[in-house]
């Protein structure tokens, strides 16, 4: 049996008060005595009315109190990643203080149009898998802040990934090294593999490509050399994919003396595999990571890595959005010496 939808006027007629009184009970409680408000809310609950239509309120007021966070990849993968989950925590912390709500949106969805009318703005964390979303964001009426990539004309939050990669690689590399790189999302492939002559994926916007350029620059400036068959593509920063790459690179003959990893998760998996094989780190093998996750400091030996504050990055991105800021910000990072180089 279909229920008739209750309207504000209909509820007011049933209860015997004005529509303004009903509206005040739900939206402006300071306009009524506590006793009067409680009485009205109980009567509304009894007839099955739970307040004015939220969608209509959003359209009327022009704001919802909801911020959409567009994640570069699917939500399941992103929330399980320690770097992304820490970033989300930073965003949430700022929004909660301002009584705002967070909507997670996958970067492989078809369009932002389904949610654009119901959010107050967008934070885009990483270049979305569906590149069409970046074009939609560029022309969006609502405020937009990008993180770890840039859209012309929009405010952004980044670190200098290329310089950070150069710095950590330069710290690790000596003369006449055999160097390998365990990269992240370098080519368009769902499996762990060497890149060989495959075209690089997202060369203009990807942080992985910026890190790769930093590594290659450091390798060249320290008088070393690397070919594409010593560069691995790992499709996701997850242990299973990293373990396969670690096994392959450690079984190479001759084995690398330095391995540069594009995430701490990859580096930690490599470190475990090396220690299981009895390879001494750093005496026989030097390993670098990137991100500075908590586990990198807890492991033994401590991982040598780039530390970026993902929680501060999330807080800054949310603050920029709420303040409608227009400038780009490049955040600082730290090189953690660790014990693996």
Indicate the topology:
Elements: H1 8-15, H2 19-27, H3 34-46, H4 54-61, E1 66-71, H5 75-80, H6 82-97, E2 101-106, H7 113-116, E3 121-125, H8 131-138, E4 144-147, E5 156-159, H9 161-172, E6 179-184, E7 193-194, H10 207-221, E8 231-234, H11 239-250, E9 258-261, H12 264-276, E10 286-288, H13 294-298, E11 305-307, H14 310-322, E12 329-331, E13 334-336
Parallel strand pairs: 1-2, 1-3, 3-4, 4-5, 5-12, 6-8, 6-9, 9-10
Antiparallel strand pairs: 7-8, 11-13
Helix pairs in contact: 1-2, 2-3, 6-14, 9-10, 11-12
Pfam family, one: Peripla_BP_3
Keywords: DNA-binding, Transcription, Transcription regulation
GO molecular function: DNA binding
- Compute the separation of the termini in Å: 71 Å
Major sheet characteristics: 6 strands, parallel
Structural class: alpha/beta
Strand order of the largest sheet: 2-1-3-4-5-12
Strand content: 15-25%
Q: Oligomer, anyone? A: single chain
Bin the helical content.
Answer: 40-55%
Based on CA inertia axes, which overall geometry fits?
elongated
DSSP strand tally: 13
Low-pLDDT parts are: none
Average pLDDT works out at: 91
User: N-to-C SSE series?
Assistant: HHHHEHHEHEHEEHEEHEHEHEHEHEE
Radius of gyration: 26 Å
Count helical runs: 14
């Amino acid at each position: 049996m279909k229920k008739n939808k209750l309207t504000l006027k209909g509820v007011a007629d049933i209860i015997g008060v004005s529509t303004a009184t009903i509206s005040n009970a739900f939206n402006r409680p300071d306009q009524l005595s506590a006793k009067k408000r409680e009485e009205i809310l109980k009567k509304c609950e009894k007839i099955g009315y739970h307040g004015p239509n939220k969608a209509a309120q959003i359209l009327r007021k022009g704001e919802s109190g909801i911020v959409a966070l567009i994640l570069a990849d699917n939500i399941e993968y992103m929330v399980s990643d320690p770097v992304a989950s820490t970033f989300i925590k930073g965003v949430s912390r700022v929004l909660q203080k301002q009584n705002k709500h967070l909507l997670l949106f996958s970067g492989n969805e078809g369009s932002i149009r389904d949610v654009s009318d119901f959010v107050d703005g967008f934070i885009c964390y990483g270049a979305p898998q569906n590149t069409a979303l970046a074009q939609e964001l560029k022309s969006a009426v609502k405020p937009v802040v990008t993180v770890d990539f840039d859209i012309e004309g929009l405010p952004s939050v980044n670190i200098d990934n290329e310089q950070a990669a150069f710095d950590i690689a330069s710290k690790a590399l000596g003369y006449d090294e055999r160097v390998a790189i365990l990269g992240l999302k370098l080519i368009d492939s769902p499996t762990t593999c060497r890149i060989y002559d495959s075209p690089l994926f997202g060369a203009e916007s990807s942080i992985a490509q910026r890190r790769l350029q930093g590594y290659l620059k450091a390798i060249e400036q320290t008088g070393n050399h690397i070919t594409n068959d010593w560069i691995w593509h790992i499709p996701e920063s997850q242990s299973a994919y990293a373990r396969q790459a670690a096994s392959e690179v450690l079984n190479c003959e001759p084995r690398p003396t330095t391995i540069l990893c594009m995430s701490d998760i990859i580096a930690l998996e490599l470190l475990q595999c090396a220690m299981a094989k009895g390879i001494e780190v750093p005496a026989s093998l030097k390993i670098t990571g990137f991100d500075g996750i908590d586990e990198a400091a807890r492991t033994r030996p401590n991982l040598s890595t780039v530390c970026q504050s993902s929680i501060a990055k999330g807080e800054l991105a949310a603050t920029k959005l709420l303040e409608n800021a227009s400038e780009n910000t490049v955040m600082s990072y730290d090189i953690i010496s660790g014990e693996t180089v």
